[in-house]
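Onboarding guide, step 5: your first structure request.
Type a short instruction followed by the sequence, for example:

Predict the 3D structure of this protein.
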Amino acid sequence: MKRRDFLKTFGAVVGTAAVGSQLAGCGSSNEGDNIQNDDYNNQKEPPKGKMTYRTKDKAAGERGQTSSLDLPSGSRLGEAKVSILGYGMMRLPMIDAEGDKTVSTIDQDGVNRLVDYAIEHGVNYYDTSPVYCQGLSERSTGIALSRHPRSSYYVATKLSNFSEEAWSREASIAMYHKSMKELQVDYIDYYLLHAVGGGGMDNFRKRYIDNNIIDYLLEERKAGRIRNLGFSFHGDVEVYDWLLANHDKYHWDFVQIQMNYVDWYPNYQPNERNISAYYLYNELEKRGIPAVIMEPLLGGRLAKLPKFVLKKLKERDPQKSAASWAFRYAGTPKNVLTVLSGMTYMEHLKDNLLSYCPLKPLTDEEMNFLYDIAEDIRGVQTIPCTACSYCMPCPYGIDIPGIFTHYNKCLNEGVMPVNPNASEYARLRRNYLIGLARSVEPERQPDHCIGCGKCEQACPQNIRIPREMRKIDDFINKLKS
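The system replies with C-alpha cells like these:
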C-alpha cells in the first residue's frame, strides 16, 4: 500500500470527535513513566469539566458534550459515557514495606490521591488484573475506588488464568469471584479474557473452551454481574480471527488491542509473529466492536524518544510533550472507546488530562507527520520491550525489563559505546557498564540466562528474549575486555 493511500485509509476511520465542554507490573520505568523531564517544567493545571467522553448517545451528558461511538445494536454498553482517558492500574506507585526496605509494596495513599484527582477531572474507567503489581493491584484499586460513589466509575478486570494450575473451571471461577471481593463490587463493568493469543489456539482452548469457562462468563453477563464482556489480545492472530469470526455467538462488547503510531503502519512488523494495529483496529471497526487501546506509548518508548526525534516534535509544538502526541493519535479514531495509560505520578496524570480535556483530534497532516516520526524511531534498533513484566519473575532471577530498559535508554540517548576508535568510546563504555551495575544487580544480569525460554512464551511482544540476552551479554563482555 502506498503511503498516501494508507493515510487516506486511516482518515476514513477517523471521526470528527466532538469535544466536551470539555482518551502488567508496577513502578515507573515503563509506560507509566511517560514524560520527558523537561515536560514537567511549568506544567499547567488541567481544567475540570472538560473531559472528552465516548458514548453511543450523541446528546450532551451531565458533564459536557460527548463524541459519538457507533456501537452495535443491543450493545450492553448502552448509553454509558466512558472517559477517553482510562486509568491503567498496572504501574502504581511503590514504597518500601514497613520494617523491610528490601520489599516493595503499593503506596496506597499515593494511589488514593491519584484516583481522587482523576475522578475529579472526569476519568471514569479503571483497568486492573489479578496479576498486576505482584497480585496487589485489584485490592489497591478497590480501596481507592470504594471511597467514591459506585456510579462515578467503571471498573475493568480480567480472567488472568495464565498458569496450568488456573486452567480448571473451579480455579478460574474462584479467580473471578476473588476479583469482585478485592474490588469491593458486586458486578464488574468490563471483564476480559486476558492476553489471548499467547500460546496460540491450543493455549486458548485450555484456558477458556475445554473448561467451559467462557460459557460460564456468558451466563454471568446474562445475569448482570458482568456488564460488558471482551478480551485483550497479544500474540497469534489465528486466535484473534477465530474470536471475531465467532462474534455472532459471543457478542463481544469490546476488545482491547495495542495501538500506537509506530505499530499502526501495515508494512511495519516488529517480528514475524506480530500483526499490525491497522489490521486489529479495522477488524473491530467493520464489526462495530468498540476498541480499548493499550500501549499507546509503546511501553513509554514514544515518550522517551531519541533526542533527534524529540527535537522534531518540539520544533513542531514546543508546549506539547512527546506523550501528548501519542495520546492524541490513539484517541482520534472514532471506534476507540478509551485509551489506557499507566500513570505512576501526578505529573503523568496531569499531562494526559491536558491531552484529553478536551481531545483535539489529529488532522491528516498531523498523522502524516507522526508516520514520519515513526520511520525515524524504527531506524533506532531498540528492543521492542514495553516493560509489562509478563516475563517475570525469571526462574533464574534475571531482571529482564531492567536489562532491556538500560540498553534501550543508551540507544535512544545516542550514548551507546559502539565504535572503539571514537574519542568518546572510553567514557561511554565506562558509563554503560556503571549504569548497568547501578540499575541491575550483578546476579540479575544477562550472563545468568540459561535460555530456558519460559519468558519468551509469556512475552506479549513476542521478543526472543533468550536470544536478545545472549546478544547483550556478548556486548557486555566485549566492553569489559
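Each response can be followed by summary notes, for example: The CA atoms of residues 218 and 250 lie 8 Å apart.
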